[in-house]
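Hi R.,

Here's the chain you asked about this morning:
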Amino acid sequence: MSSPKLPFHEWIIISLLIALMLSLAAVTYFRDRDTLPETGQPLAIDSDTFKVTIHGAVSKPDTYTLKRGASLQVLLDLAEPLPNADLSKLKLKRKLKADESFYIPSKKLITVYLEGAVADIGPIQIYEGSSLHDLSEKIDLLPNADKRSLKKKRLLKDEETIVVPIKMSTRKKKGGA
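And the predicted structure, written out as tokens:
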């Protein structure tokens, strides 16, 4: 029983495939050889630390070297978030991984217009997500302002007008009713 012979063009294809595989193996061998340390030099692997980068609304943006198991809160303590940093969507207890990068966004400002019993009538800028209660801590009220209207926890909306009412007098008139 004789084995079938391959046509000449199929031998050419097989030879080219073998040559391609050998050249790929040679390239891989010589390229990796340049990046490996020479014999006798230990690999510099520090398994106790890793690097993490942070930038955005922080006073110290940088790449920090942290210990394994460090949380996002540890990184934020080092980078010192700015007062306008929006940390609302961050999970501060989450463990960090090597080579992570964090961008800390700034809170968006909205404009609210003040009317009524306030010292300065007109627009004021406040961070998005602020409530009426937050606003009351940032404005000067007149002595006759009804502060109860600002104790609500509802969120402010951009371009909203807030009217601070004047207290109604609770004095009883002489002479009875």
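The chain has a mean pLDDT of 85.

Let me know if you need anything else.
M.
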